[in-house]
Amino acid sequence: MAVAAIELLGFFLGLVGMIGTLTATVLPYWEISSHIGANIVTAVYNMKGLWMECVYQSTGAFQCETYNTILGLSTNLQAARAMMVISVLFSVLACAVSTLGMQCTVCMDGSAAKVRVAGAGGCLFLTAGLLALIPVAWKTHEVVQTFYALHLPDSLKYELGDCLYVGIASSLLSMVGGGLLSVSCCDEMDGPGGMRGVRRPGGGYPYPHGGGMGTGGGGARGGGSMPLRSPIAPAAATKGNTLSHNSTSSHSTHVAMQGSRKSPRQQAAPGYDVTGYV
Q1: Is residue 259 within 8 Å of residue 272, measured between CB atoms?
Q2: Helix, strand, or coil here: 255?
């Protein structure tokens, strides 16, 4: 039950991270024009994203223009586009794979590969979060460095947009969700009935090293070797020895030897004769 709860939590965090990553990829709020200096003009706001550049005026007009060229864009922007798109694709694939491998679903129920599928979904979430974190952190560093540059005028400086905060939070959620799915997969494989099974003693459960019951090795409770013997054999051997000594010794010697060789059970048996007949 605990493993299923961890898997659900990891899947929910990964799903939220995927939605946040998709939102940050599409919206143009990566960097917003900053209004600093003596003459502050707030009538126009400039916003830039991965796919378009927008202008918002104080009158309420909102205009956006997509980038008409691809080869004319900077290398950083092209790499950020590619990483964010791949991150979204990996998140969608991770959701599909995790749904098949989680314990709360009936897909692949009873199969040994079900736990591995859940772990693969967690790894995909981790990869998607890492791919989304790289361009967001890269763009954040670039905006901060540009803002504190001394050779640029204040009108060309930008501040951190909302998509950067959303991107950082989404990437972290995806990585945490993927980590929870991976941890639940490892716990399930190490637990009883998992892929690795339960370790047993070297001598074979429930007996220690050296053999089991009825052999020359030590038993489960005794330290020495006690081979099993038939309870009838000692009595038969004692009777044969007594009859052989009757022909060469006196009656008193027979009685003494018979009493010394008898087992406690035979001594306690009533009506026992020296000759072995009742």
Answers
A1: no
A2: helix
What is the Cα–Cα distance from 94 to 117, expressed in whole angstroms? 10
C-alpha distances in Å from residue 243, one per residue of 115, 246, 253, 259, 276: 74, 5, 12, 13, 8
CB distance 192 to 198 below 8 Å = yes
Q: Count each helix (H run) and each strand (E run) in the chain, helices first.
A: 7, 5
| pTM of the model as a whole | 0.64
Residue type, 225: S
Rounded distance, CA 182 to CA 189, Å?
A: 11
d(CA 57, CA 42): 9
pLDDT digits (tens, 9 = 90+) for 17-53: 999 999 999 999 999 887 776 555 567 788 899 999 9
Q: Write down the residue that tokens 């690795």 correspond to.
A: 196
Q: Which residue has the tokens 């979904």?
A: 121
> Positive or negative, the Cα torsion across 135, 140, 145, 146?
positive
